[in-house]
Amino acid sequence: MNQFGILFHKEWRENLRNYKIFWIPIVFILFGILEPVTNYFLPQLLDSLGNLPDGAVIELPVPKPEEILQAVIGQYQLIGMAILILAYMGTIAGERRSGTATLLYVRPLSFRDYFLSKWLMASITGIVSVWLGLLAAYYYTFLLFNQVEIIPFLQFAGTYSIWILVVVTIVLAASAAMPNAGLAAAVSLALVFFMQIVDSLVGAYWTFSPMKIPVYAVQWLNGEPDLSDYWWTLGIAFAFILALLFFGTGMAKKKASTAKV
Amino acid sequence: MTILEVQNLTKRYGEQLAVSNLSFALEEGTATALIGPNGAGKTTALSMLAGLLRETSGSIKWNRESGVGFLPQHPHFFPWMTALEFMEMAAKLSGVDSKKALAQSKKTLEFVGLGSVQNKKTGTFSGGMKQRLGLAQAIVHEPKLLLLDEPVSALDPTGRREVMDLLKSLQPDTTILYSTHILNDAEQMTDQLLFMQQGKLVEQGSLAEVKERYAEPCIRIRFQTADQASAFAGFVSLPASLNGSTLELATRGDGGTAMKTVLAKLAENAEGVVGVEQKTVSLEEIFIKVAGGR
Questions:
Q1: What is the C-alpha to C-alpha distance for residues B273 and A188, in angstroms, rounded to an integer?
Q2: Do A14 and B78 touch (CB under 8 A)?
Q3: What is the pTM of this model?
């Protein structure tokens, strides 16, 4: 029987029983709803909490629905990514450290299937969470403001899903390469956030990099990104993911002997 | 037939030699006890044989297709998995046909005495239950070679006896190599003894051979008082040593003749004699002698 199926079944069960498959989507949905709702109630909030003098009139421009979805991505880029990284930082490093990996490694294990089963599980959780969160945001934005065109929305969410794959792949490869979950998280957070900052500071000199995917995703909402840049960026992102999958598999195998016996 | 052959197996961590030039062979169907003090390199050696650690140098020759089962000293399980779920996964990963894996898992859990808790999560298991589950996962695919690191050390005396009996019942279909520091257990089930110290194999052979090598044949006579013991020492010509009211007579070589002589002397001067025995050397005494001799 193929090992991928056996190992994926194990990952599925684990994510079900430690509730990751429930709470991660819930967090993304909450942040998806929060953005349109707070925007909608902002004038009332300012009125009641703002301690403004009587008679002061606040005139806020009504945000465009696209701007609200963009703000949701802003939340995901910080809190969402941190949650995904923290949730999956111990996927491999933690198993090695606790010793649970030993009884797997002692069998004729395919480390490719081992790594890919974990990667697929984390990817599914991440992408499903983001889609549910964005759909919730889409729905509440529609209720409280206005409708965003469906096609641009799908292009936007689809593009952002590829970014999720990039992040998930980084955290899993780090978990395979690092001696413990904390270091795996530190490396992943550093890569994801630091590289984004670098890209936004000096990234003006190049137009395609995996770090620009969230920017291009948002651009679909307001027209379309430069398609040549866009496809190049996706191509490089897929190459980056593929390279990290090979790297992660190799590291999982190489570091197998560090599992606690 | 030799099932496993190890030659000059060495593991080096930086400057430190954890295992140094280990060479031995396992005959099919035999049980081999790997003994030695803490830190002798037993776990490192077993980990290399199980394929968990890469050796620095040397070779391990055996037929991988015949399958190996490994029980680490402290097996760790996924606490959210039930015993049966874990066994089924372990069986399938070890190549048991997926149709047979469930039945095979249940059968093995019954065998180690965990049949009634097969649907309980392993996170709730006691140390003894984990040890049994560890044994079950090592044998679920019916491997020809079983490597066990301290299989009974964590168990109480009853549990130890039960697990040793389980292991014995696996023979002779399974070749067993197990480490232990409980020498009583080693004496119970061993065709070959490997004695490791500071990473090296310092003693090797069958239990009888090793005992023979360390035997210091002597006749031990216990008296009621020390005076009676020293008085009797004057009647025999054998080299005597007194230890309180116990007299030990070194026999050198033919113990039978010496025993006859001693008994004849005792027949005349039996005052205060409590017991007479031909002293045999225990594995524990050998252990202390070998381990302390460096």
A1: 79
A2: yes
A3: 0.88
